[in-house]
Amino acid sequence: MSTLLSILFFPKKGRSTPDDQAVLYTRITYRGKRAEFSTSRRIKVQLWNTKSGKAKGTSEEARTVNRFLDHTRSSLYEIHDRLLRENRRISATTIKEIYLGKEEKQYMLQEIFQDHNDDMEKLIGKGFTKGTLQRYNACKKHIEDYLEFRGKAKDIPVEDVDHKFITGFDHFLKSEKDCAHNTAQKYIVNFKKIIRIAYANQRIDKDPFFHWKGNWKSSEREYLTDSELKVMAEQKFDIPRLDMVRDTFVFCCYTGLAFADVKKLVADDIIEQNGKRWIKTKRQKTKSLSSIPILEIPGKILDKYADHPYVKAGKGVLPVLTNQKSNSYLKEIADVCGIKKNLTTHLARHTFATTVTLSKGVPIESVGKMLGHRSLKTTQIYAKVLDEKVERDMEMLEQKMKNKQ
Q1: Cα–Cα dist 299/250, whole Å
Q2: Residues 160, 86: contact at Cβ < 8 Å?
Q3: Same domain, 324 and 244
Q4: One domain for residues 153 and 72
Q5: What InterPro entries is this protein classified in (predicted)?
Q6: Euclidean distance between CA atoms 149 and 142, whole angstroms
Q7: H or E segment at 192?
Q8: What is the pLDDT of residue 217?
Q9: Running DSSP on this structure, what letter comes out for residue 59?
Q10: Which of 202, 267, 282, 300 is least enclosed, having the fewest CB within 10 Å?
Q11: SS3 30
């Protein structure tokens, strides 16, 4: 019998019991936590031995009560041993519920995770994107790999997730999956949502993330400088696919559109306003409105592809390839242009925020509106103050100071 488990019986007076009688209760203690229940068996108060925890004497009533208590104790220990053999979570409450025939369904972590992902898949395009679903599917697979790494089964009861499990998963992502710090944090946040759903639905008694706090490391966001952007925009390509991907990238550099937004951009999203063309579109990620005046360079790119079969068919204003292919071809384009940076489709959005707008003195509020940000804090992530702008600002200050002398 485990020393972690103790069974105690005690009498308790009830409102409906006679003065000389009490109802016997069972107290289960496991790892310092208790659970109690009534045996519905009455006993005369004078028959109870508090020190031994059983009825005293050799009367028929005393022997009957003690046999009942021995059987109850034996049954509770058998339940404990069965839980051990089945490698299931043990608690005083679990033992009590099984004894009383109220054993509830054991909710498994991966089952809950899969249910969440199945529900999310049904809502693709109605509040969720395929990219979001892919991240949750990847997180679920990482959890499965982590369980296997720990030498456990492919699934565990969700109530077995504790702070140690969370920190262990974090370490696993970084050491075994080679995830960067912020990438690991994103997976932990995805996992946290699943656990919070389980907690909200009363699948678990406490939130294991209560004492967990994520921390993000600030990272330098790359962008193209004016000279690099000029080289790329003017580079001649004989290969149509490279020319097309370059044009889409440059278009995003001058409009700030994310890849998903330029891919879904259609003719109805471009309007005439005060004699100038504007892009008016809702961001796929946040559904917030982006209002962007079309500058000369992106305007020429739109005109260049106006007669392209893809555009003529009404599929979009530019023939945009997949994100994966675009990123792959951008590597080739970078080599041809002599650009040493890791070009990705999203780097164009950084370039718009930093090189094209903020460094030219465009107010951050206007940049945020064009980027479709709901909060100025989000725009500040992109805000880069270039050395050359600082130098120009200080030269202007120096000139003003000289003029006053």
Answers
A1: 11
A2: no
A3: yes
A4: no
A5: Arm-DNA-bind_5, DNA_brk_join_enz, Integrase-like_cat_sf, Integrase_catalytic, Integrase_recombinase_N, SAM-like_dom, Tyrosine_recombinase_XerCD
A6: 10
A7: helix 181-200
A8: 77
A9: S
A10: 202
A11: strand
| Integer Cα distance of 44 and 115 in angstroms | 53
My answer on whether 241 and 387 are in the same domain is yes
Amino acid at 331: K
**Please, how many CA atoms are within 13 Å of residue 53, restricted to the half-sphere of its CB?**
11
- Candidates 209, 295, 227, 211; CA nearest to 257 is 295
pLDDT tens digits for 63-75?
A: 999 999 999 999 9
Buried b (16+ CB within 10 A) or exposed e, 26-53: bbbebeeeebeeeeebebbeebbeeeee
Q: What is the rounded distance in angstroms from the CA atom of residue 63 to the CA atom of residue 168? A: 52
To the question of pTM greater than 0.85 for the whole model, the response is: no
- Cα angle 224, 270, 274; round to 5: 100
For residue 273, the cross-strand partners are 276
> 236 and 193 in one domain?
no
The span from the CA of 280 to the CA of 267, in Å, is 10
pLDDT (mean) for 289-306: 94
pLDDT confidence tier of residue 290, bands split at 50, 70 and 90 = confident
For residues 253 and 380, state if they share a domain: yes
With tokens 């966001």, the residue in question is 221
Rounded CA gap, 329 and 383, in Å?
27
Q: What is the pLDDT of residues 114-161, one digit of tens each?
A: 999 999 999 987 878 888 899 999 999 999 999 999 886 788 889 889
Q: Tell me which amino acid residue 53 is.
A: G
